[in-house]
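name: query_chain
kind: protein
chains: 1
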Amino acid sequence: NKSAPLTTHISGLKFSKMNTLRKLNSLPPFRSVGGAYRLFAGKDQKKDSAGQKTRQPEKPPQDKQKSKGASGKAKSAGSTDSAKKTTKVTLINGEGVGRELMDAVQEVICAVKAPIEWDVHDEFKAKDSDDVSPEVLKSLRANKVGIKGPVDSRHWQRQIRKQFAQFAYVSLCSHIEGLDSPYGDFDVVIIRDQMEGDYSGIEHLVVPGVMQTIKVSTTAGAARIAEFVFNYAVKNKRKRITVAHKANIMRMTDGNFLEAMRAEADKHVDDVLFEERYLDTCILKILLKPHKCDVMVSSSMYGDVLRVIAGGMMGVPGICPGYSVSSLGTVFDCRMKACHALAGKDLANPTGPLLSAALMLRHVKMDKQADQVDCAIRKVYKDTDIRTPDVGGKAKCSEFVKAVCDCL
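structure:
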């Protein structure tokens, strides 16, 4: 079966047996030139990658957070009584339906009595260009936490990733009881690279009529996201990691990404199962057996495909919450379109932004309020027929928000 994994790490497997499997799997054609280079350069690259480990914003350990000499706000994020302290959050309204969606987020956060102070930015672009506003970048770097509405500009999205060093995007896709779906109950986390791969943004004209795009994969970048993925799985008690790749075709770039995942998997054989699948096999699995999927990871374009599919399985792609990861902080959003035609009509679906707000609350250690918001959203879907038009209902955005606030 060509779609079978090259390697499967099973919890409890001894290193001697694993090394034997590794030697068997190291035969051509699947070992990349980039992978061979890793065997000699891996130690130096790991030093760079390890530097990112202590700076990742994904639930930082309490003692490390304090050791940075952080401000009172940072300490409150790790403190047990954080609900009594105020956390400042950058809020970017975005464009199109963005303002009404971010108004919905503020209304629900107020209803749940979460001590959040908003640093609101209506203007998210620099003057006379699609660049990210300097005020937005300054605010994000100061607050370390942000939430944003939809922005359609590809240039703006690419620039904020690079300026803010957002190397990974995490999507949390789960079934919402009450929404029509043929896929049953599922809970899948999709983590994708944002800095490299097909989305590196390097394109040029070779000769008239011939264009070229360059797919980038570095050993340091691949090691960084591999380390993040396995740390995420361990911290959140996830039991299986599946990497989606096409290393059989792109042996150097996808091969390098795959080698980084294998190297990190070797360190966690007792903690998490690891498997390798071709992208097409992963897509079939998430559609046919989503309840057997746990954490799925891939390079940029593959992960975007998986994210959109999983979001559609929830009901519509725009309701799948997520966040961008950076050593400088964390920005939450749900990657929905700006939908300019619906702007001001009170018809946008606020589910995705509200679920993203729940993730944000959990990130700043307001777990009680996060659970309340998440449960209230799901209760509206389970116990009422209040639905926006995109999921088959007739309710307005404000009516859905009011129903959530009434639950709270």
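note: The longest helix spans residues 33-53.
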